[in-house]
Amino acid sequence: MAVKRESLKEKLRVRDKSAMEIHAHYRRIMLDVVSLSKDEVLKRAKWKCPLEGHSKHNGLEHSACYDRLHTQNFGERIGFLDIETTDLNADYGIVTCYCIKDAGSNKIYEDCLTPEDIKKYASKRRDVEPREDTRILESLVKDLKNFDRLVLHYGCGFDIPFLRTRAVICRVPFPTHGFYVMSDTWVMLKKKFKLSRNSLENGCRKLVGTTNKDRLSMSIKHGALRGEKWAIMNMLVHCRKDVIDTEALYNLIHMYSKKTKSLI
Predict the structure, then answer these.
(1) Alpha-carbon distance 90 to 34, whole Å?
(2) CA–CA separation, 264 vs 252, rounded Å?
(3) Are residues 183 and 138 in the same domain?
(4) Same domain? 127 vs 180
(5) Is residue 62 domain-shared with residue 8, that is, in the same domain?
(6) Measuring CA to CA, which residue among 156, 162, 221 is closest to residue 189?
(7) What's the CA gap between 72 and 58, in Å, rounded?
(8) What does the pLDDT look like over 119-144, one tens digit per residue?
(9) By C-alpha distance, which of 159, 251, 252, 246 is closest to 211?
(10) Are the CB atoms for 97 and 110 separated by under 8 Å?
(11) Which ranges of the chain would DSSP assign to H, the alpha helix?
(12) Rounded mean pLDDT of 173-184?
C-alpha cells in the first residue's frame, strides 16, 4: 500500500507540474497577443510552423520559430552598412563614402568625401597621417546611433576593422566593443551554402537571381582622392547599390542561420 501511495503521489506531482507548465506557456502566449495588433494576431494564428515536428503549432504557440523565419525585426533597428575606400588597408587608404540603409524603410543614411575635406587636411609634411575622412567618420558614428544591429557583407574582415582603424588615426571616438551587434552575410554564405565564391555579387546573382553590382575602376578611385565630384558620386552610387544587394541577400538567407549576437 505504501508503494502504491508513493506512486500515486508521484503521478499527481507530475500532473500538477505539467499543468503549471501548460498554464505558464499559454500565459506567455496571452502576453504576446496583448502586445500585437489584430492583423498580426490573425496572421500568426493562421501560420503553421514548417520545422520538423512543429507542424501542429501556429505562430502564437511557437513565437520564437515565427520570429526567426520572418523578416520582421520586432523592435530591433537594423541597418545595412557598406563603405567605399581608396585602399584595402586603413593605413594607406581613406573612407570615401558610406551608406546605411534602414531595414524598415527606403531611407539611406550616407555621406561622402568633398573637395573641402581634401583641402582642409592637405599637408606637404611627410610625417602627417592622411585624415581627409575625419568628417565622414564623425558623420558615420552619428548615423550609427539610429540602429541596434548592423548587417554587412564581409564586415567582420574588412568594413568594421577599416572604420575602427581610420577612426583611431583620425581621433574620432568609435563605438567600443559591445555597443552594436552585427550580422555578416559573407559568414552566412560560407557556413550555410556551397558557392564557388562567397562575394556579394555571386551570392545575389546565384541565390537572389539578380544583382546591382558594378565595378569601380582605378580612375574613379584616383579621381575621388583628387576630390573630383564625378568620381565621388560614382563611388556613392556604387555604395548605395551594395547596401540594396546586402538587404536582398540577407532577407533571403538569414533564416538559415542563427541570429548572431556578434559584437563589433
Answers:
(1) 50
(2) 23
(3) yes
(4) yes
(5) yes
(6) 156
(7) 17
(8) 898 887 888 888 999 999 999 999 99
(9) 246
(10) yes
(11) 2-34, 38-46, 63-68, 115-120, 134-144, 160-169, 185-192, 200-203, 218-225, 229-253
(12) 90
For all residues of the chain together, what is the average pLDDT? 84
- Residue 242 CA to residue 199 CA, distance in Å, equals 11
| C-alpha cell read off for 115 | 573637395
Contact 170, 134 (CB under 8 A): yes
pLDDT, tens only, 198-233: 999 999 999 999 999 888 888 998 898 888 999 999
Instruction: For the beta carbon of residue 147, count every other beta carbon within 10 angstroms.
Output: 20
The three three-digit cell numbers of residue 91, written as one number: 593605413
Same domain? For 21 and 110 the reply is no
Q: How far is CA 33 from CA 42, 120, 138, in A?
A: 10, 56, 42
* pLDDT number for residue 126: 80
Same domain flag for 151 and 221 = yes
The rounded radius of gyration (Å) of the Cα atoms in the chain is 25
